[in-house]
Amino acid sequence: xxxxxxxxxxxHEMGALDLSMALPFIIDELPLGIIVMxxxxxxxLLNRGMEAxxxxxxxxxxxxxxxxxxxxxxxxEKCPVLSMSQDSGMMCVEGNIVNRERQKIPVxxxxxxxxxxxxxxxxxxxxxxxxxxxxxxxxxxxGAYTFGQLVGRSPQMEQIYRFLPMIAQSNSSVLLTGETxxxxxxxxxxxxxxxxxxKGAFIKVNCGALPAxxxxxxxxxxxxxxxxxxxENKPGRFRLxxxxxxxxxxxxxxxxxxxxKLLTFLDDRVVHPLGSTKGFLCDxxxxxxxxxxxxxxVREGTFREDLLFRLNVVRMQVPPLRERRDDVQLxxxxxxxxxxxxxxxxxxxFSADAxxxxxxxxxxxxxxxxxxxxxxxxxxxxxxQILAEHLPAYLTNPIPPxxxxxxxxxxxxxxxxxxxxxxxxxxDRAAMERKIxxxxxxxxxxxxxxxxxxxxxxxxxxxxxxxxxxxxLNKAAAVLGWSRSKLYRKIHQYGIET
Amino acid sequence: xxxxVLICLYENEVCPRFDLTREVLIAVIDRDAAVLxxxxxxxxxxxxxxxxxxxxxxxxQVVICGGIxxxxxxxxxxxxxxVLDSVIGDCKLVLxxxxxxxxxxxxxxxx
Lengths: 498, 111
Description:
heterodimer; A: 498 residues; alpha/beta; Beta-Lactamase; Rossmann fold; Helicase, Ruva Protein, domain 3; 4 domains; 5-stranded antiparallel sheet; 5-stranded parallel sheet; 16 strands; 15% strand; disordered N terminus; B: 111 residues; Nucleotidyltransferase, domain 5; 6-stranded mixed sheet; 3 helices; globular
């Protein structure tokens, strides 16, 4: 009986499932980054998870050495694969990789040899698990005033910390608003890592960085031959973010044509790559962020109202640093500690003068600017304390702000519309001022129009005809080609005294 | 008009990680597509601080490397150093491509 069982053909021998053909598709569906290498440690196969993690496309990598794709801190000096003996099993290490998005990602990597049916060693495979989520949880436990990578203890930040876990539990679309440099992307990452999708990919796309045609292919993918140069199928960022989160930065810069496509996706959750007849059902949570006033853009017709309604399910305003002054000291200490450790400097703190300058500065570039200032000071300072002279010159010798240009309303011309944030103005106030100027121009144009257009001309015609016929209305009506009653009506309408 | 270039090395290739670079190639190239000077420097240890300091003190205008973290990329950019990152390939081939003015970030040059 066992012999009979053994003689039965295996399913793949019957042609039901060809494993060698199916392997790339199988590993594509696994929620891990996987790379298969030959004995020379050249990458011969990458799955979709690995593409998302490293940013490399399997089509462009060919058979290059895996260290160029993985870029791990374990790759150069102490590659675990080299230390594997002929009969060793799998091994696991923790380290970090730097992907093409220039992010350093902590990973847990499992290495295992691949052997053929005779037991000959024919290659290796590695699986990569993104452990940022574990790191953020550890950080959350240890830090009193942090959440993921967010730092702050002001009431506004505490409110965000309270909201984030609740938002993370749902799958609703999130719209993050706030000025540039406030940390919208960190909030998005915190939501992702706190959610049940933390094991999936977190894919970030800057909608303002690419032209519309490229962005469409980047987001939704394309089919081979869809356009000139489309030599291979491309999955697109939505597909890469399957089971994860897609973060659309600068959604306000998304072209109108793509807004429609995004709208369709948010409705039916199906991605249609360019040139493809088939859709792909994609389980992606969308988080969008912008520093623009989307309501204003809707009024101006540059952003679709229906897309705004769909994105605006959960809205979160990230406060600017000037509204949470309590956090400045905390952030200064946090970044100083970070950079001092990183640059191996002896610096321990700020002098009273330097601290005074830093605390009184208004930080138009928000946390990003504060971080850069501390980084600069940490680089320049070689002492125990950061002094005022170690700060960037524009803090110690402030340049007087430029006078805003005075817009004179000239007939038929619209004053240049400056971005509100460029002048550090409140966007709503700037928008209101802009509307008043535009209204004034339109009103003036209207008045000018009144003078030159038909009613004025008609009144003049009637007066001329009456003068010409010496007040005889019958003859005036004949001159004008009107009936007498029409002339009377018009005289009454324009208030002409006869 | 000459340009001073630094290539992060690992054996004869561009080093996959900027922060783990132990060896660099510093070259001076001119507009006529010629390499005027070349020197290889071995660093005592992989140190970002040391590497950034070397880039600034040597007056490097272009850095060619593999993976680099965003903050170092932005720092060098802020210091007016052009960074061509995610470059893969043999350093001679990369330098040749740079001299021809055809090298860009993300290029994979494998023969």
